Amino acid sequence: MSSASATAHDNTYGQDDTYLYHHFEDLQQQHESSSLGMWAFLSTEVLFFGGVLGAFAVVQTLYEPAMKAASEHLDPILGAYNTAVLLVSSLAMALAVRAAQLRQQRNTVLFLVATIVLGSAFLGVKAYEWIHDYHEALIPGINFDLERYPGRQILFWSFYFTLTGIHALHMIIGIVIIAIMAVLVQRRWFTGGGATQIEMLGLYWHFVDIVWVFLYPILYLINQ
Amino acid sequence: MNSAPRSDDSQAIKESDSSMGYLGADYTIKSWLLTTDHKRIGLLYMISITVFFLLGGAAASLLRLELMTPRGDVFGSPDDYNRSFTIHGVFMVFFFLIPGVPAVLGNFLVPLMIGARDLAFPRLNLMSWYIYMIGGLFTLYALVAGGVDTGWTFYTPYSTMFSNTQVIAAALGIFIVGFSSILTALNFIVTIHTMRAPGMTWLRLPLFIWANYATSLIIVLGTPVLAITIILVAVERLFKVGIFDPAYGGDPLLFQHLFWFYSHPAVYIMILPSFGVISEIVTAFARKKIFGYTFMAGALLAIAVLGFLVWGHHMFVSSQSMYAGMIFSVLSFLVAVPSGIKVFNWTATLYKGSVSFKTPMLYALGFIGLFTIGGLTGLVLSTMATDVHVHDTYFVVAHFHYIMVGGMVMAYLGGLHFWWPKITGRMYSEFWGALSALTVFIGFNLTFFPQFLLGYIGMPRRYYEYPEEYQVLNVMSTAGASVLAVGYMMPLLYLLISLKVGKIAGPNPWAASGLEWETASPPPTHNFLDTKIVTSGPYDYELQEYADSHRAVQEQGIV
Prior knowledge:
The complex is a heterodimer of chains A (224) and B (559).
Chain A: H1 27-62, H2 64-71, H3 76-101, H4 105-135, E1 138-139, E2 143-144, H5 153-186, H6 195-221
Antiparallel strand pairs in A: 1-2
Helix pairs in contact in A: 1-5, 1-6, 2-5, 3-4, 3-6, 4-5, 5-6
Chain B: H1 29-33, H2 38-66, H3 78-114, H4 122-144, H5 158-162, H6 167-194, H7 207-239, H8 252-286, H9 293-306, H10 322-350, H11 359-382, H12 384-390, H13 394-424, H14 430-456, H15 471-501, H16 541-556
């Protein structure tokens, strides 16, 4: 991480002491705390997704034929397209973090907006897939045709919608926070240029992308 | 270093009454509800968990009244009994036992003990209390709107398909309150990593800090799994999907695995911080360094790690594979090793110490005895063959109450009495304190020891009627519960009275070592007036005594 080299009173994370909260000794301690806090939070997120992924792994192993039959209704091309979109959004986020550290306010906002656009594009494709699933009667509890998809196929769809649903929820939360951050940076609300805040937001966004990098092969590819 | 208040510093509170420390910083309601001071947030938690403890206790009293007689008479129907024990379990586990020591004593003491001005994220800390309250309100709503009858374990498929009660509201409450513990734990981890005073190395940390650190690791890694499990239950109830429903090929056992993956470590979330409290009290009142500091710290971490690998011992009589059961059984036995280290080292600390039996010490000694009984009966339950015999009987109920009530509640009360002078600046009545400790100890044993016997001779848990031959032991248990209730009511009264009439405590009424005793009581808003520099490990009581006598010689010229 580039932040490791930041010393107490350089300008990366704030102008002198005006950005230092009262209970910290110096800016480096403050930045380390934010960073460790975010990583600890992401570890809870790993376990959050880990619980349902573990459950899915059990079902996938026990009932492979049914899972295989069910996942054939997913389009790997759309999934691949979405993966690419999300990875580019991660690049945009990384550039926004860099721009914030360099105090390039205009670029920061620009890259944050690019991240929002790419994230929304992902959600758009996801919505399209879900609507398609609805018309195919593949959504358990809302519209599911047990006769067309017999046996344990419904289990696959229960997991599919739980997993992609909580992932999409994370995306939406991320997009809302990015939008708020973009406005705040635009209005020069942060005395420190928002470098720490945007770096932490970046960690969250990359995490959400990595979750998708796991979901895509697990849901779309392993049963092909 | 520059600790003067800054213009952007929301904490720049002008201290109106320096003798009242953080309590006197501001007296408005707003200053409490919007505070970011870890000490005030600790007090907010203290009040709220007391309320939930009383609610859960009221439910328990009803249960014990019902069980006085073999026939059902207090409750109109078995369903009401089921609702009552569910509410008792949910309130006590999720709203009292889990947040108890970390959110009240931990919040107050972690920054003080490591020489920091506050936790790393003061606003998140406040948010965690609001989240706790929102979760509590959801659960209270579930209680008012018809109750829940699934037991605190929410086993499927009953909770997802058959129960006609407010499962979703209660589950949502537990889901929400989980985030409050996650935020507290996250705050502790970061604070302990980054905000220790100069010289406060890892092996100089008080064991209370190690205990809260180990607990925080469990909370951060375990709670999210419970969160997703509860979401799956709620989704299954709402949309009738089949993840846990055998009708669609789902598996109820999957729920049990996910649930206990969190809920067994949750037992260690409840008990590890108590270990920390006991280590502080035992050293202070035996005037001795803790025996085997590094092993005590290592044992805490070992329990945290092993705790994640033993959940299957709740499922010996489910359809879990016998071989899995054997592995879980062996791993459960391994937990006894670090737990044994703790108990032996506490007793070794007492050996040849100058022990004084003040109220906190009475609670701590009670803890050691009761925890040992609870731990040893745990071995009976982690042995597969004997578990089949006593599974789902009152033996299990007695076992976990010895750990949770005999362990966590004793430690919480001990810690409360130990740090009450620090929190409020006042001393309570030592007579009433000692009396309450004894009453709680006697009442507790009278309540729960008969339950071991009841379980062993075959009385199952969660029934509201029972054959007549069980009545004598049940009446003993109910009588004990009323003694216990009196014991719990006493501190509520004399601690509050001490606020008005208690003697001024001074910074260090117990002559205890630790940074929290080096500042005023109650501490000022920023905890310390100067930066603390730590030059030695914790619990240096012998050294302290030696230095004191040496100083006396020098000052008074006595040779």
